[in-house]
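User: Before I run my own analysis I want an independent prediction to cross-check against. Here's the chain; please return only the structure tokens and, at the end, one sentence I can use as a sanity check.
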Amino acid sequence: MRAGLTLLSVLAALAVTPVMAQTSTPPLTVSDNGRYVEAGGKPFFWLGDTGWLLLGKLNREETEAYFAKRASQGYNVIQVMVLHRPEMTNPIAGPALIDGDVAQPRVTPGNDPAKPGEYDYWDHLDWVIDRAAAHGLYLALVPAWGTFAEMRILNVDTAPVYGRFIAERYKDKPNIVWLNGGDTHGDMATVTWQTLGKTIKAIDPNHLMTFHPFGRTDSSWTFHNATWLDFNMFQSGHQSYEQDTTRGAYGEDNWEYILNDWARRPARPVIDGEPSYENIPHGLDFVPEPLWKAPDVRRYAWWSVMAGAFGHTYGENSVMQFHVPGAKSAYWASTPWQEAVDSPGALQMQHLKTLILSRPSYLDRVADQSLIIDNGTRYERVAATRGAGFAIAYSYTGKPFRVQMGKISGKRVRAAWFDPRTGETQPIGTFANRGTRLFTPPGTPAPGNDWALVLDDAATPSAP
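Assistant: Structure tokens:
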């Protein structure tokens, strides 16, 4: 332990220079067509993790270990609450606010990271942001969780004060994305959220901003035309088809939100910022079983990206709340977070990111269900996307399906099966790019026997 703390002290003492941070986390911008995101002018696939309670639960050694782990697994965005509750406290830096007042951040003199107790909550957040950048990670920060507005602590009077404070403090950090809201309805306290968004954006126009909404709602429903909103985020939520009985509900069909947002104008990127988490109960707090598992989180990721999302956010029950044995937990979390970071679904997310970025025409990619003939519904649906010289069709059950050829360039196409569990490819063959063709995935058809069919123009070089 002493050696670990010594290493941490050295790391904490090293400042992340602007040049270093800019190299590892260049500015994020919306692509010219309004559909995707770029980092320093290059395609950026958002692979996020919900580390919501990082600031309230982890010390610096634990934060460093978590960032290193997620970076090694291909993640590039961590979604974090800045303020979860009025009494928000970091275990080593103390409370964030004076008397729980969002208009009075607790800022103390001194900032010596080598001496716990001589830096405050905001000094600690400075350090967290810099260490994330050192690992090539962007932090998607929720300034204040939705309960602040519901309790009227965040309102039209306090939002400008707090918004000005946090925007001024972090406007020059390169690896920031703002998530306004926080698991809340956009049509409740709307003026407050508009005020906070406008305040931050006026001071910090160079960082992307969206709104993190309540389960099974979308930022576009209230804020699509807001001047501060750069991309849409929806929360497809944690309920099954049977549990989601709200009017017009999509259940597990998270791709529906994306198709609806693609039909809106102006064009904006869209992402599922909170799908069902791995190892969390169906419906969250209905009953402790059954749990969503790795096949489910893969399905949510592939369905949304095939529909046109610019990336995906993953979540794991114990990790999002950084559960430790013996401590109070939500939603029946039981696995230590240090073990849960290696859950099967967490390791498998990077394969989708790798495949999508390996194909050309990333910024011109569109959803195209006309590729699939006689498509099924719910779990039997085959989701398809294509660019100029490639197409990808994802089947969650591995049931045979027919493809309409001729939708991409080339007289002949090269076909292969891509395994979402391992990232490995199994060549199928080369075929004429016309007519229809039946493709039969490996294995026995069943939920979780998921495969992606990849078609490439045979005249192009083979992708990695």
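Sanity check: Confidence is low (pLDDT under 50) at residues 1-13.
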